[in-house]
Structures are given as structure tokens and as C-alpha cells.
Amino acid sequence: MEAAYEDKKFTLSARTGPVPVKLLPRERAKKLERQGRREAEHLWQRYPKPVLKLLAENGWRAAKGLWPYVAVEKLRVHITAGGGDPYRAVLAYGRAGVLLEALGARFENADLYIRADLDGGPSAYEGRVRFRARMGNLIGAAVSFGTGFLRGYFLYRRE
Q: Against a cut of 0.85, is the pTM above it?
């Protein structure tokens, strides 16, 4: 599987044997946006904060359970630290440096790059990870996430 965040867009694709399958972004949502029939809603606009918190907690729990079964093949993270003034850019550079140092200690063949934009430009992030996991482990993590989230969501709705 491969996940990437580039140009403010998140993509996810899977390869089963010789056949690649693009999972995100969904083409139907793009088609509706182009036709102007409906604005794309963001997740945080659609659901209240307790539901989003529940979503994040269950996602984190599922990811922690899946982590021992995932082999990361390639990791690339490029960060441009910026801000409204040079002081903020240097602070952002320091925070990004700590993150990249932690990633570098965990992954041996990672392509990590950081640069500072002291001219007042915004911070930019770009990343790509290619990993390998068995389909059964992914399905197990999805079921664990889904059942935990639905249980909490129904309890929230009952209140």
C-alpha cells in the first residue's frame, strides 16, 4: 500500500499482485465538485466534536494494534518551515527537525528533508510512505475501528 500527502491532497492506493487499486480520493466526489452540484463537506463540519474525538481515539487504537504487522518499505518526508516572520519560521524549523530526527531514528532508509523559508511564506508538508501488510491484518484493524466507533457513536446518540 502507498499513502501520500502532496499539494494539500491525500491519496491512498493498494496493490494486490500486479493490479493497482486507487482507494482515495474517490472519483465520484471530484465529479460532483466539478459539476458544482454540492460543495465537498469537511469531516469537522459534518459531525460534532465528541464524535470526532471518538473517531480519533478508535483510529489511534486500531493503528496501534496494526503497527506490529506493518513493514515500511519506503518513507519520504519533505518539510518547508515557514511563518509570518523569520522568528516563527525558525520555531517551525525546530519543531520539524525534532519530528524528522525521531523518524530518522525509527526508519533507516528514510528520505527526510527540511528547509526554512525566512521570506514569510507558509509552511508546506509533503510525504509518501509505502508499506506492506497482510490483507487479514488490515481487515482486522478496520473491523476493530468500526465496531469501537459505532459502539461509542450509538452511546453518544442515545444521550
A: no
